[in-house]
Fold this protein.
Amino acid sequence: MTAPTLNLQRIGGLPRRAIVAFYLLVLAGSVPMWPFGWHLTLHVLGATMLIGNALVMAVWLTVAGFSRSDRAKRRAARVVNIGDVWFTVPGAVMLLLNGLAMVAARYGGIGAFATTAWITAGLILLTATGLIWAFRLLPAQLTLARLSAVDGPLDTDAFRRTLNGWYAWGIVATVLPLVAAFLMTTKPSI
């Protein structure tokens, strides 16, 4: 018997090349040749995508987790990974690349990380969020997807254990970018 795998050729019903084209568009829009206002807009859009998807997926998986429906749990486990492909990853990329472009254009370049505490704190919080997502949330999401892809009844105990770990790390990974958003908008002297 082979382990179930995720179909990475199609994500969310769209071919992989559509996703690649979307990511290339995000990268092209984030090249530091565009005006500051453009980068600020993409930076805010990236924050909205990252934080918005974190909140929506938390609600979606919480509702599914409390549901008695295996079908709801299976769907939520699949959709959270699709949301990451379309919102979390491009949001984080837009945050990072456009933030760096703005630092270069207006705050003196890389030296701003040593002299402007709120920029440094924002980058640290974004990095911590990315590490939590990559090493805690994504593995849990892939486990949920594998559990939900098995034919027959859902292993609800394994699903619940995995989901509880996802909740705990998800809270941390949602609070960190919210703190970063506060720092980026208030620009306190830390």
Q: What stands out?
A: Confidence is low (pLDDT under 50) at residues 1-11. The first strand starts at residue 10 and ends at 11. The chain has one domain: 14-186.
